[in-house]
Each structure stands twice: as C-alpha cells, then as structure tokens.
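We modelled the chain as a single entity of 322 amino acids. Its sequence is:
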Amino acid sequence: MGIFTPPVNMYINGIAHYLPSRVLGNEHFARTCGITSDWIEERTGIIERRMCSENENTNTMAVQAVQRLNQQFEELPPYDLIIGATYSPYDTVFTLAHAVQHHLLIPNIPTLSLSTACSSLLNAFEVAEGYFATGKASRALIIGSEHNTAYFDDTDKVSGPLWGDGAVAFSVSKDSISDCDLSVRYLKTGGAATQGKANSAVFLRPWEGGIGMPNGRDVFINACSFMQNESLELFKKLHLSVHDIDYFIPHQANLRISKHVASELGLPEHKLVLNTHKYGNTGCCGFGIGFSETMPVIRKGNRMLVVVFGGGYSFGAMLVQA
C-alpha cells in the first residue's frame, strides 16, 4: 500500500467538462454482438454512452474542456504548469497537454501527459502537488481526456458496451485565490500490479485488438476491495466518519461497483454521484465529470470523497472540502 503524507496546500479553483454530442445506445450492441439492452444494464448499469464524431479525438476534447473551464474566469489564469491524463491518446508525441498548451499559446512552461489507466487523473493531481511543493509551479491546469471508442471492439459482448468518451479540466493552485475555492485535504495514489490478474485483466493494445477486459470478475473484486479500504484509511487519517461525507464520487466504471462500495461503507445512495448509466466508462475522466456536474449543488463546508481504481492495477483517494 502507498505511504500517505499530508498534501501541501492545493486548491481547486474551477472544473469544467466536455462530452461529445453523439449518443450510442445499448441497441447498437444488439446489432453488433447480439445482446440486449437489459443484459448490458443489468451487468453494468449502462444505458447509453457518448462517442466522438469523426473530427473529434482525445486532444480536441481536452481543448474543449479547457475552453469551458476558462470561461469561468474574467481573464486567462496564469497557468505555469499543464498536466494531461489519458490512457487513450490520439498522439503519443504531440500529447493532449501539448495540444492544450498550443491552444492557449502559453510558452516555456512544464507540459506533460501521463498514464496510470483509470487513476491517471488523480495521479495528475499528485504530480501538481509535487511541483507546488518544490516551488516549480503555483497554478496548474489539469486535464483528463479519454477516447475509448477509438480503440473499442463493438463486437466484443464482454467489454465492448462499457466504453464512452469525454474530457474534464481543473484549475488548481498552490494558494487559495477565491472564497469559492475547494481545498484538497487528502491525496494518495498507488500501484497494485502485484494483485490478482493485474497484468491481464484490462488491456489497451492498439495493434492487438484494442481495448478489452477479459477478466472483469477480477477487476470487480479488486476494485471493490481497494476502493473500500482506501476510503476507510482516509477516514482514519483525517479522523472522519462516513457521516462527515456529503458526496461520494467514485470512478465511474460500473454502477454495481460504485453501489457496492457505497453500501459497504454505509453511505446512503443519495450521497453517491453517478454518471456511468448515461456516459459509460469514461476512464480516468469519470470522477472528474461527476465532480463537474456536482459543482452547482456543492455548498460551503461540504466534503467530497473521491476514490478510484484502474487497470494495471492502480488506485487512489482524495478528500476535497468546500
């Protein structure tokens, strides 16, 4: 398990997300692999998902999310760090972070993209934390973007119906810049590649069948275990209980996983933020999109618990307070 150290000062100044307009319903998979919408919904909770159009990709969605984020500010924030997160890149050289830097015309600042499967976005926060701690940056733009349908096999009835596309962007600062800022009070990530079938349960091999999940049961078992345990550890470290949590925002992979973890923790379902049913598994962006959608109802003093688990395996937890 990873070692927890209290985070340096880190604040979320704004969040925005982007979803392609094209909606792909479960009936598509009835045609491609002979399964019913009820069959998909029963196992995953997914009813429909978003899919990029022909002129969209990981980079274009990232730029769209950033444009929506920056509309929240009167002028362009003084970003001195750009971090992209994805496991489904459009270009492995001119990455989504570089595409955003090019769009914003901000020269000569640290610009990088990273991948730790569905934990990538939470790891991006931890990278920003490191830059803040060393004094190399003070205002970060963190973007997650996943183009899963570029790699999926819609004839694969096991995992084909799972995937959706989307992007999310966060403005994050070392010091608070507004009374509306959200404070990051806890942040921890880790790798779990020694567990279960981590080396084969989920894969994305562009030249070997794209994206797949041949060992979904192993993913389910480990996701439920890690997400519950990381939540309990967070409570212990911060001297909180489940009753102190106002919103539970898990990785949006499977409604059964999210609801199982919430139930095991004793969290009432009305505190559970869910979007898998309408967007599918949007990879590392899932919790970010859920967070963005929840922002209008968050009130001062609210606590948001974020917990993720991804292929590989990887995991993480974050506590944010308004």
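As a brief sanity check on the tokenised model: The chain has a mean pLDDT of 95. The two ends are 28 Å apart (CA to CA).
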